[in-house]
Every structure is written in C-alpha cells, then in structure tokens.
Amino acid sequence: MKTYLLPENATYYKANMHSHSMVSDGNFTPEEMKEVYKAQGYSIVAYTDHDVIVDHSDLTDESFVALTGTEYSIADHDVSPIALCGTSGADMPFNMKKVVHMNLFAKDPHNTYHTSYNPKYIWGRARNHTPDEAHRDGDDYERVLSAEGLNDMIRRANEAGFFVCFNHPYWSNNRLIDLENLEGLHSLEVYNYAADYNGGMDYCIDDYEWLLRAGKRLFPMAGDDNHNWMKETDTSFGGYTMIAAPALTYENVIDSLLAGNFYICVGRGAPEIKNLYVEDNRLYVDFSPAEAVYVNTAGRATMAAHAKPGEIFTHAEFDLKDEFIYFRVTVQDDCRRRAHTGAYYTKDVLQ
Ligand SMILES: [Zn+2]
Ligand SMILES: [Zn+2]
C-alpha cells in the first residue's frame, strides 16, 4: 500500500509566507503586492506586517488568497547573545542586540485579534491600524524575551486561532538554545530571502535539523520578508512555499499548512517535488529535472541519489529503516537551488 507523504498528484499553489506592505514598513500597497506576486506565478501571499493585523480578504478571489497575519517583535535591549560582547548589552548598538520575530497566521481570515498588545510596540505607519478594544486583550502586555515570555506569546496566539512561525534566527542574534525551549511553534523559517539577499544569512536548514533531533516537531517555512525599498522587487521571489490544496480557498490553504501538505523552496526557480510516497518501506520521489536528492535522518545515516555527471533525473528511490526515527527530503538542481520537505516519522509510515 502506498502512503503518500504529500498528497497524490496534488495541485500546488506558490506562496510567499512573509511580507511587508505599506501597512508597516514595506513599499508596495497590499494591492500592488498582490499584482507583482501574481505576475510571478504566486497564488498566495501572507501579509505579515509588523505588529498589526489587517484583514486583507478583499484581495482574495478565485486566483489569489491573502492570508491574514502579522510579525510580532520582541526585543530586550539589555541582552546580548554574543559572548564576545559580554552578558550585558545595555550599551551596545542595536544591531548587536537580541530580538525575536515571530509570524502569526490567522486560521480565520477575519481574525485580527491582538493577543499580546501594547501600544508601545506599534510604530510608524502601523499606528494607523490600532485595534479597537474588542480586538485586543488590553493595553499593557509586556513582551518578555525569555523562553517563558515567548512561550506565553505563542500559547496566547495559538489559543486565539493563530499558528506561529519562528523567523530568521540569525538576523535576530538568536542561539539554538533559545529555540529549543520553545513550545507550540508550527514552523521554523528555514529560509528568509531578504536576509539572504542583504547578508547571505538565514538559510537555516541545519538549525531545523538540530531542533528535530532535539525532539521538536515542527515544519520548515520559507518566505521573502520582502520590503521592496524603492518599489523594486529586489527582495521578492527568492524563498517560497509550495502548498498542496484541493482548491485555492483560505480554508484549504490553512488546512494544508497545518497538516504539513507543503514543501519549501530556496532560490528562484527551485526544483518542484511532484510526488512523495512510501510503499513497502521504500521511499519514492518524483520531481522536476534535478541533479541530486538527499534524505536526512535523525542521525548520521544519510542517503543520496545523483544524476549521472552532466545529466539530470526526475525520480529517486530509497530504502527506509526504523532506526532513522525521521527522514526528510531535499531535491537540488544543477544551480544548487533546493526544495525541502518537512520531517516524516518512520513509526508513522513504516510497516
Ligand atoms: Zn523580522
Ligand atoms: Zn519581516
């Protein structure tokens, strides 16, 4: 019997799961963002403006879904994770200090409820979207940059109908120990295109592996974090998420994200994963023309399939073993652009 790890012969919708519009510090209007992304083949954009939640359902139609979201920031200007800087960061420049950014995605498109609101966290144009009293849990929430403080924010978000992605840990000066103590995350932002474009950082697949090995169950995520300074698309189209859904509706997209029916792509024009299934403890992968496929596990056991030198291939097979605990798949093309799946657990799929 075949066990499909991604839905069989699925239709995939291309999504940018991290974006900033003129609602906060981006330079496209929400409508312009829809247009430029649709022109590049996208069907989904998550609007994750800083610290405000705006319902953009008016942009959703039969060819496009606008996901309701926000990016919450937590800063502690007295803490530095950089050992060379000492333990007190009080006198350090901003860029040496630790922050945490988390994306919240609303399961209901009309849910704009703020779960950790305090007007002091809202800045710039975002102040134009101050929530009324019915859409916030008071005015005095203190965001605390500690495992306890972050877990409280994650719990509140989950209880209010959101799911949470931990963003760009390198740009934020985070340490892995900061992430290992978090509970209730949906995903880790494994690829942030803007951080990569601007500084070659935040391609965090090894950190995702580390968290999996630490026993965390979470999905990988990829997004642009586009701001589009000068109204250019320099920080767009480089990191995206391919979401399998029976139809392009808000509800279907959310269900697929929660179920893990998606994979992430690193680099414009990265390979596509067509089918992924297990039959008789053997893993089958169909993909668009590529050069290599890797299977990573909870330990040193790895597997790879390569096209013959100078050639490409579109299918690979691997034998799975219980001892892997989990496995995840990477497809890589001849420009080293990659598609990554999340982790699948052998006890769920092996006979
Ligand atoms: Zn951020
Ligand atoms: Zn951002």
Which terms summarize this structure?
4-stranded antiparallel β-sheet; TIM Barrel; Immunoglobulin-like; 351 residues; binds zinc ion; 18 strands; 14-stranded mixed β-sheet; 17% helix; alpha+beta; 2 domains
Short description:
The chain has helices at 30-39, 147-159, 176-180, 193-199, 205-213, 250-259, 346-349, and strands at residues 2-4, 12-16, 44-47, 65-75, 99-106, 162-166, 187-192, 219-223, 239-244, 262-266, 273-279, 282-290, 292-297, 302-306, 313-319, 326-332, 338-340, 344-345.
Name the helicity range. 10-25%
Largest sheet: 14 strands, mixed
Bound molecules: zinc ion
Low-pLDDT residue spans: 79-85
CATH classification class of the largest domain: Alpha Beta
What's the helix-strand series? EEHEEEHEHEHHEEHEEEEEEEEEH
Q: Let me know the number of strands.
A: 18
What structural class results from the helix and strand content?
Answer: alpha+beta
In CATH, the topology of the largest domain is named TIM Barrel
Q: What is the typical, i.e. mean, pLDDT?
A: 93
| Oligomeric state of the chains present here | single chain
Number of helices: 7
Compute the number of structural domains.
2
- Portion of residues in beta strands equals 25-35%
- Report the CATH architecture of the largest domain: Alpha-Beta Barrel
**First and last CA, distance:** 10 Å
Rg, nearest Å: 20 Å
CATH superfamily of the largest domain, please?
Answer: Metal-dependent hydrolases
Global outline: globular
